[in-house]
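sorry for the late reply, my laptop died twice this morning and i had to redo everyting from scratch. anyway the thing you sent over, i finally got around to it. pasting the sequence first so we're on the same page, its 129 residues, then the predicted structure underneath. double check i copied it right bc i was rushing
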Amino acid sequence: MEQKPDMLQVIFDLQRKFDTEIVEKRNLKGISPDEWIQKEVLAMLSELAELLAEVNFKWWKNPKEINYENIKGELIDILHFFASMCIKIGMDAPEVYERYIEKNKENFLRQYGKSSKTGYELDKLENKA
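ok and here's the structure:
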């Protein structure tokens, strides 16, 4: 049976290739990693605003029908910038995976009051209801 590729690794490989080509073709050499992060955070904020516009957040405006294909497209745009920022700071796909698993575990512990971080506990929320 053929082994499936590591999908997150494929995303990172493609993003690295894209970033390299953009730097070369658009003559962007010499931009420091912190400047790149600033630019990519701004780009991601722009994509987040486009995503927000797709989900009828304006309560003062008549809602439009939700276009899930547009939402998916905006999420992918955000993923591009996220992967690019990870690469710029030296985080590879395995590290992203490991850090995600670690943080997810911590998030569950917080919800059930089993973390050193307080203020997230579900039982306190249920007691208020």
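DSSP finds five helices and no strands in the chain.
thats about all i looked at so far, will dig more tmrw
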